[in-house]
Amino acid sequence: MKETISIGQERSGLWQDTNVTYAQVPGWLGHATRDLKLTVIRHFEEQAKPMPLLVWFAGGGWMDVDHNIHLPNLVDFARAGFVVASVEYRHSNIANWPAQLEDAKAAIRYLKAHADKYQINKEKVIVMGESAGGHLASMTALTSGMTEYDKGAYLEESSAVCAAVPWYGVVDPLSAKQNSASNDFDFVYRNLLGAEPEEDAQLDAKADPLSFVEQNQVPFLILHGTEDEVVPVADSEQLYQKLIENQHPADLIELQGAQHMDPAYLQPEVSQLIIDFIKKHV
After folding, report:
1. pLDDT per residue over 1-42, tens digit each?
2. Contact, 204 vs 174, CB < 8 A?
3. What is the DSSP letter of 264?
4. Helix, strand or coil for residue 270?
5. Residue 97 · residue 207 · CB < 8 Å
6. What is the pTM of this model?
7. Strand order in the sheet with 120-130
8. Where are the domains positioned within the chain?
9. What does residue 260 show for φ and ψ, rounded to 5 degrees?
10. CB atoms < 10 A from the CB of 56, how many?
11. So which domain of life are we looking at (predicted)?
């Protein structure tokens, strides 16, 4: 069969800028320098106006992070009208907390500094992540407006964001360790903090989103599975309650029967919930 058809332009194509260096940090015991990378999914055509930026932090217990692993699943958000950036951050065997938070904020400043290239609306930045990355999304949002964790380049840009979407994110490291249904991952909290969370309450508090909920009123959409054996769903419930008490616009969606890293989070229904929440609050 031979046929000539006319194709309408219903959506733009997508570019992928892979492994872009956004910062350089100390490496190999402080004797060298290592690059930190991010990948951007952006749109072919010049857009009529800049687009919201969705910044993604992958999980991995702060110990093994592949910032490209979820890119196929993030295309839904690019198709919905976002520029998407997936960000590498330092592992806990390289640097303890708050290095990871400093990296997240450095990536946001880099992206804002290159907003014209990527067609980003600097006033509409959303952070999202899973597990350890969900913790990082929460901490990045709740420290918006604070300069304590802004380190490195592009300090003329603000690292503030306007919404957070943590998926089964760790809240208080001590609570996560003590109340998890499994003790297989207890060591990750020691590696992150540089000490056992029960032995250093001050250090634990500095990595606990509950310590920062009074800093601003950033909107939150929290997603958590009812059968999560790694991160207690009760911790997300506590975060939700404290956010509400401090006038954050917040929703908590519990996914019935979902476990940690469950495919349920990757379903179109969940993506649409996230998109609708962002469009409502951003």
Report:
1. 999 999 988 888 899 999 999 999 998 878 889 999 999 999
2. yes
3. G
4. helix
5. yes
6. 0.95
7. 14-27, 32-43, 83-87, 51-57, 120-130, 163-167, 220-225, 250-255
8. 14-281
9. -65, 135
10. 25
11. Bacteria
